[in-house]
């Protein structure tokens, strides 16, 4: 019996259901045909398929058109529900409503994002969207992409130079939130900031290097090498806030993203100047898995991040 039901199910298509409901409404094949934009022979053919499918005449001729059988009357509410459900799947996704939704936004963010983007985002949600919970995970870029792939997180924030493909298909989509550049940071009154900060003076200074991902060289070092210069690295730390404390208490300088310096220089009694090295800016992106490309919730999160990070 199950196999017979599967065979019958394959014989059903949406047009048959729409024709059935139109004839139930109008009780005349001609009026039903006009409503749904089919010819009368096409409607008659569809009714014939339905009769064979259900083993019932479904509609009997009458003086005023057709009269539904008992089975047709029994089927009508069920068919109406099916058509309504199909219609709902074809509708545009509804917009995400943060006022009526209780959801956790799971975001991968490393040291830079935790020091710049996330405080503004969480401040905004705590004031205006208290039922939206923000959960952050400290993941490297590779770990974050893996987290997106296995649904561990909703968004990954940061600098992603390249995004992997699978079978020549994009696995991830992204939106650029803004472009960041670098500045040179040191304690107030640092000798490096007296006079012009040239590339040579910059390279010769004692540097504190921040290595959150374990890589010993970044975009700044590669750009310096094109000028035949190398940073004089005296110490390394993995995080920005220990770096800011060390800068305040030493003669070291560090090359930091501008937003980190702008947000925390006053608190740590630091000064900063523009990095005298062009071509070192980078985009900060919000990355999601391609399965969430049309998700209203993810769209809302990205829009909120974009507005709070301007």
Rg from C-alpha positions?
32 Å
* Major sheet: 5 strands, mixed
Morphology: rod-shaped
- Low-confidence residue ranges: none
The tally of helices reads 12
User: Which structural class should the secondary elements be placed in?
Assistant: alpha/beta
Percent in strands: 15-25%
Which percent bin holds the helix content?
40-55%
The whole-number mean of residue pLDDT values reads 88
Oligomer: single chain
The string of secondary-structure elements, in order, is HHHHEEHEHEHEEEEEHEHEHEHEEH
Topology, number of strands: 14
- Which strand order spans the largest sheet, edge to edge or round the barrel? 4-3-5-14-8
Overall description:
The protein is of the alpha/beta class and 310 residues long. The protein has helices at residues 2-10, 14-26, 29-36, 40-54, 70-90, 111-128, 141-149, 199-204, 219-225, 240-248, 258-264, 296-308, and strands spanning 59-62, 65-68, 103-108, 132-137, 155-158, 165-166, 169-170, 172-180, 182-187, 206-210, 232-237, 254-257, 270-274, 282-289. It has a five-stranded mixed sheet with strand order 4-3-5-14-8, with helices on both faces. The protein has a three-stranded antiparallel sheet with strand order 12-9-13. A two-stranded antiparallel ribbon has the order 1-2. α3 packs across α4. The mean pLDDT is 88.
Furnish the topology, listing elements before pairings.
Blueprint: H1 2-10, H2 14-26, H3 29-36, H4 40-54, E1 59-62, E2 65-68, H5 70-90, E3 103-108, H6 111-128, E4 132-137, H7 141-149, E5 155-158, E6 165-166, E7 169-170, E8 172-180, E9 182-187, H8 199-204, E10 206-210, H9 219-225, E11 232-237, H10 240-248, E12 254-257, H11 258-264, E13 270-274, E14 282-289, H12 296-308
Parallel strand pairs: 3-4, 3-5, 10-11
Antiparallel strand pairs: 1-2, 5-14, 6-7, 8-14, 9-12, 9-13
Helix pairs in contact: 2-3, 2-4, 2-5, 3-4
